[in-house]
Amino acid sequence: MQEAAFDLGAEANAFAARQRGVGAIVTFTGIVRDLGDAPLHHMQIEHYPGMTEKALSKIAEDAAGRWALGDILILHRYGRLAPDDAIMMVATASRHRRDAFEAAMFLMDFLKSRAPFWKKEETAEGADWVAAKADDEAALKDWT
Amino acid sequence: MDVLYFAWVRERIGLPRETVETEAETVQDLVNELRRREGRYDLAFSDTSALRVAVDQELCDFDMPLKGAREVAFFPPMTGG
To answer: Do B78 and A114 touch (CB under 8 A)?
Structure first.
């Protein structure tokens, strides 16, 4: 977790440089987007220090137990972000691309609904908490 | 025990954390106790199906026993990623 912005290219390169003998690296980056009716000014991200670390470790351990992975990286920002800012990234390394892709999907699905982060959108019409989507919860069932 | 609130639960109750002296046996007992305190608690906990709870930083159900618990946190469904 960090409040500061991260450099996607630098993080991806550093992650790749740490690997030996892998055949595939997948990275995913989440970006603050403006999809609502009122223009988005900022997105405030709150988290639960202490539980966040535990939840992310558990999600990463579960992924490592399911796929043959060389390494996993999870970066997630908190604080006040602007549209087009990168919120978070995951990277997975594996000998095979399927493992790397599936593990990245799994990490994202669980980060959405099982890591203690909350988003609040500040728009021209006021500020409101982003509601969790039923689809995101349903996505977890596909992994059981 | 420490009771923590996040996101709109924190906003409705008006504070991020507090220490609560309680004999509550389960999370639900604690919720009932807090609701009896003041309107802002009653409002925040009026629909627990819209809430999630963690005891000692692990997600759990509202029937979770509180024996030995140090920290209970209430929050809306998470929206990470």
So the answer is: yes
Q: Does residue B81 lie within any of the structural domains?
A: no
Q: Would you say residue A35 has pLDDT above 80? A: no
Report the number of distinct structural domains present in chain B: 1
> What Cα–Cα distance (Å) separates residue A29 from each residue in A51, A75, A88, A137?
22, 9, 6, 20
CB contact under 8 A, B78 and A50: no
Residue of A nearest to B56 (CA): A51
Kindly report the length of chain B.
Answer: 81
Q: For A77-95, write each residue's pLDDT tens digit.
A: 999 999 999 999 999 999 9
Query: For chain A, what's the residue count?
Result: 144
A interface test, pick of B3, B55, B79 with most A CB neighbours within 10 Å: B79
- Terminal alpha carbon distance of chain A: 27
pLDDT beyond 90 at B42: yes
Cβ separation A115–B78 shorter than 8 A:
yes
Residue A34 pLDDT greater than 90, yes or no: no
Which structural domain range is residue B14 located in?
2-75
Residues of chain A with a CB closer than 8 angstroms to some CB in chain B: 30, 46, 48, 50-51, 54, 76, 87-88, 108, 111-120, 129-132, 137
* Containing structural domain, residue A76: 8-141
Q: Which CATH number goes with the domain that contains B41?
A: 3.10.20.30
In-domain check, residue B50: yes
Is residue A1 one of the residues assigned to a domain?
Answer: no
The total domain count for chain A is: 1
Contact present, A63 and A92 (Cβ < 8 Å)? yes
